[in-house]
Amino acid sequence: MIDPNADRALFRQLADQIRERISAGEFEPGQMLPSEAALGQEYGLARTAVRAALSLLRAEGLVESVRGLGSVVRDRPEPKPVRLHKGDEATVTLGEGLPRVVVVRASGDTETYPADGVILRPA
Hints:
By secondary structure, the protein is an alpha+beta fold. It is built from three helices and seven strands. The protein has a three-stranded antiparallel sheet, with no helix packed on it. A two-stranded antiparallel sheet has the order 1-2. It is elongated.
């Protein structure tokens, strides 16, 4: 439920709701989300709030936009374990709009992974 009196921004509340529906399997990978207008009507929000929520979900890699069609739930691969050894460093970046984990090995080698596709573990 969206609470207009809450301290959390409306678009963030909507993103939380959609994220939960994706996690619960209500929206499955490859499935189109309802249109911006339909989401706005369902949740009682302006289209700008709906667009901001969908933009946030795109940045998280949960949905992608298909030109002329709308937003589609992305297929999420099983996370890959990445072992970190002494001297390795891992950071998260927002390069090209999608979060990425960048691992710089002690040797100087760099590895980049989608943030939703990696689990960092100590060696």
